[in-house]
Each structure stands twice: as structure tokens, then as C-alpha cells.
Request: fold
Amino acid sequence: MITPSIKVMDRVILERNHFQKLIDVLITRDYRVVGPTLGEGAIVYDELNSVDKLPIGWTDDQDGGTYRLKKRSDQALFGYVVGPHSWKKFLLPSALRLWQAKRHDNGFQIIPENEEIQKFAFIGVRSCDIHAVSTQDKIFMNGQHIDPHYQSRRKDAFILAVNCGKADGTCFCVSMNTGPKVTFGFDLAVTEILEDNNHYFVVEVGTELGAEILHEVTYREANGREKKLADGIIKNTARQMGRVMDTTNIKDLLYKNYEHPRWDDVAKRCLTCANCTMVCPTCFCTTVEDVTDLTGDHAERWRKLDSCFTMDFSYIHGGSIRASTKSRYRQWMTHKLAAWIDQFGMSGCVGCGRCITWCPVAIDITEEVRAIRENEMIDTSTISGKEKTNAIA
Amino acid sequence: MAIKRKPKLAVWKFASCDGCQLSLLDCEDELLGVADRINIAYFLEASRDTVKGPYDISLVEGSITTQHDAEHIQKIRKSSKLLVAIGACATAGGIQALRNFKDVKDFISVVYASPKYIDTLDKSTPISSHVHVDFELQGCPINKRQLLEVLSAFLHGRKPNTPPHSVCIECKRRGTVCVMVAQGIPCLGPVTHAGCNAICPSYCRGCYGCYGPKETSNTGSLSSRFTRLGMNDENIVRSFRNFYATSEPFRKESEVHNHL
Ligand code: SF4
Ligand code: SF4
Ligand code: SF4
Reply:
């Protein structure tokens, strides 16, 4: 059989039993292949050298503050949604040594880190997470100041995306316009189909690299019925969203309501534990720690993932600016959903639902927005712009 | 304040189990470095040789439980430039502070054959209730990595990196899956001070709170979650009355649920 030549935007079929070949091709091309796998009672992201490491036949059940693994009735490779990890685990490591310094007679010498970054292949990236990665791309690579650590991990990353075959209790990508259909930012995007005795993927080609790689794996042409089936699956997922967020005028809504009583209410529940920011795929804040050893001849500078929920985060001379829980939660949510729009021209929330699932006390960003919207404060448009900025800072 | 001459270190013990001092001895590999940089002037657990004060840094382990202790800590303060309280006992009164919830005389009569020989204070109190403390390192026992960090920081005149945020942040940084969310196991991590690198959750156990309260610890909200997970009040009291039972947030929360 002559393999048809494929190009960007083509849709073809990859059989389930050729999925291993895809991984093998990526490994041969020197990629570090990472993706979903079972670990500690959840689906986490880790090294994947074999298709058997995928959570085959497993799914998850998520709601505010709870996550449970469950068996599926089939052998799907991607029959779950997003878990506690996100791709920032690889792109924005939670702890990174930036440089070391050695003391010598009349000063000190900086020893830079010579990082050898193996290029990543991300397997099973969902649409919400593609939006999240592209959000961080904008922050770390498209502005005036490029982050070399992010860039070196991101620039050659291969993305195998998955169109979600199910949505979960905390998903709301439809509200945020970020899914479930993968529309950009992928090399290959698959929709998994399981019918009677057939198990295959409808693969959309996103880049020439994707086409090249698929060419090295075996594939066949997709017929009209198969393409339609794939479209139907995505449409069906879109109808299953566990959460909804009304984003109409959300920026003004939050800017106008910074003294809303709901902030006091959420402050009673919030633990300021920072789980929400740590799991959020767009939250990007880091802190820098300098350490010396006992001799004082050796120093290191580390960058660590940080959170606006700590006191240290807003510490300046004399104390923390956001001492109250209310001000910290309000800062987080208002930045995510409003100030982010001013800052980066987009929302900071992609509707992945992680912050809802992984909040130990089930605080729900969609519910908080609803509570404020339903009981909006009196119009404060008379407040001058300057005062507004101070209040949300 | 960078100290030029070899600084003198003293290690003191009050009512405690010795675990925190052992953390210093446990720094096997690093201990040579410590001895090289610091004159270990008074450390009975390590050596009978003692050098008279004053001392540049005093590490104080243990809580104050007798009149004699209460007087002795004043002398230590006077002879120390920097006084660092280490461990749950020194920073919060320790497990022995459970007596603070009861009448200590009742215990004495039950436990000791000749109660008349026992001379003790009604309450077990942290060092900071008696003298000014320059730095508190929490933990039961303290983490040796953090102890070295504190010593290095003071030797070189910088602020120690011992962040007072939640254990959850350590959990997430190491990629551990939350045991409370994924398995319904009650966990004190969201109200507990970081420092242990989230050991218990990484072994699939809830945090026991051995590092004491974190900054802005919202124990009330966490207790409500424990109740929803099926924990009764008696067990909520138990989880807060452990190593840091008399620390303000943990004490208050245990009292809310205590119906005895
Ligand atoms: S704010 Fe919550 S739902 Fe939105 S992107 Fe972050 S973790 Fe996902
Ligand atoms: S919203 Fe939830 S996860 Fe976030 S800091 Fe508050 S309690 Fe923790
Ligand atoms: S396991 Fe405990 S410490 Fe870790 S994130 Fe969950 S609640 Fe926090």
C-alpha cells in the first residue's frame, strides 16, 4: 500500500496498536517523552517510554475538593481529564538552581548553570492546557524580557494533543472558550474512538513536524464516518461541563466589587494553603532564595514556585501588604479573571478546574464569581481610576 | 552581622526529649564543617568539655517546667548574643504542655510513688514566655537541613530561609498528590508550618502537624472539612492536641471541639 502523503490540517487514522510506534519514533528522535500515568492515587505526568504506562482503562471523578480514580468499562488510553500536575511541572520547574558562586581572594566568581535540556514530547495535552501553555509562552517568551529557562524547555517541545472524550465535574473550558476541541498549538491532535472491536485515533496534523513523525508511524486515510464520529465525541464532551462561569464584563464586575461582602465570606473558608496557585497551569509566580553554606565560601541562588497566598509574597520593608486572607484571595481571583486582561490581553483562567478539585476546602472560583454577580454592589463608577488601582493592588 | 572570629555556640536543654539536639549530632557529614567554623563551647550531649560564656549563639531546646528552669533561662539569655529556640518544646511548650489543659497535681498524685519529691510548675511554657527570643525554629524534631540553614544564615549575617507557609506548598513542589483530596485522609498540612518537606503525605499519610501552626493558620475551616470527612470532635481535639497543643491557633481550635 502506498502511504498517502499528509500535510497540515489533514485528518488520518492511527490504529491503537500503532500507538507504541509513535512513542518509539519520538524516543528515536531523541525526545524525552512525558505524559499521563498512574501515581499515588491519581493520574499524574511522568516519563512515558511505553504505551502500557498510560492509565489504560482508568478514569477520574472530580468535584470540589475531591478526586477519585475509577475503572472504566473499556481500555481507553485517554479516558480521563486533567489531574493534579500540569505541563508547568516540566516547563517551569518548581525548584531550579540559577547559579552558584565561589569566594576567592578579592571577590567571588559566578558559576553559571550549564543546563542540558533534552527536548520534551508532551503526550495527551488537553485543549485547556494548550491555552495555559500559550498563556505562559506569552508571559515568558513574547514580552520584553525572555525567560531563558522557560524558553530552553519550551522551544523544541513536541505536543501530542488530545480532544477530550469526557468532561469532569470541575471542567468549564466551554465558558472560558478554551475547549474541549484543540484548535491550535499542537503538532498532532488525536480523538480516541472505541467501537465494538475497533480502537483507533482520528489524528489531525498540526505542523509539518507532526506530519513527518506520523509518516514514520503507520497510518491510514480516515473516511467520512470516522471523521464525523470524532466531531460528535467532542460536541458531546462540550455538553458535559461540570461547571459554568459567566464571563460577561467580568473585568468590570470584579473591579467594581472589591469591597463586596463575599470576599469576607471566602476568607473565612480559605486556608491560604496555596494549593490553587500551585496546581493552576497559568500561575507563574516564583521567588528567589539565596543560600550560603557554613563556610561562607559557596553560595547558590534558587528559583522556586511561589504563591500570592503567602505572607512573604507581598512582604516589603515593614511587613506584608496583604496581611488578611481576604486581600490574598481577592488578589488571586481578581488578577486571574480581570487584571490579567489588562496585563496580557487575555484571561488568566483556562477553565481546567484544577483549583476547584485540589482546594482542600472546595473553594470554587466559578461559585465565587456567581456569588458576586448575583449580589452586585452598588455602582462605584464614581471612584477615580487611581483609587481603583490601589484597591486591587 | 557577620562574625569574624570563630563564634562560640552553646546548646542548652530544658524539658524535652533531646531529639532536636540530636539533629545537630545527626549532621554527621556537615558536623566537621560546623566544628571548623564554630567553637562548640557548650554542648553536653556532645562533650563534657565546656567553655564559659558569653556565647555568640545559644540554641535552646526544651520548655520551661520548673522554677529552676525559669531562673536558668534568664542567665542563659544574659550570656547569649543570639538566642535561638529550637523545636516544639522550646517554641510552644511541647507535648508536655498537655498538662496545661488539666491540673498538674492530679497527674503527680497518679504517676509518682512519692509526689512530695516532685517540684514542678503548673504549666509548660515556651522560651519566649520568659525571655526575648531572636529566632524560633519550629518542628518536632527540627529538621537538620533547616538547623544548618539557620546557623549558616546567622554566621553570615543573612535571613534564614525557613518559610512560614503551609506544608501544602512543599507537597506541590515535590509533585506529591494530595492525600486529603485524592483519598479523603484528614491532613493538617494546610494549617501547618513547612520545613519537613511534606514527608507524611509523600508516604500516603496525612500531616500530623509536628511543625506547628503556619502563618495565618485557618484551623476552623480545616476542622469543618475534617468533620465532613467523618471525623468526630474527640478526634479533632486529638489531632490539634499533639506536639503544638498550646500554640495559639491549635489550642483555640481544640477548645472549640472539646466537650469534656
Ligand atoms: S484558575 Fe483554576 S480553573 Fe482557571 S486555569 Fe487556574 S486552576 Fe484552572
Ligand atoms: S482557595 Fe483553596 S486552595 Fe486556594 S489558598 Fe484558599 S483554601 Fe487553599
Ligand atoms: S496532602 Fe496535606 S499537606 Fe499535602 S497538599 Fe494535601 S492537604 Fe496539603
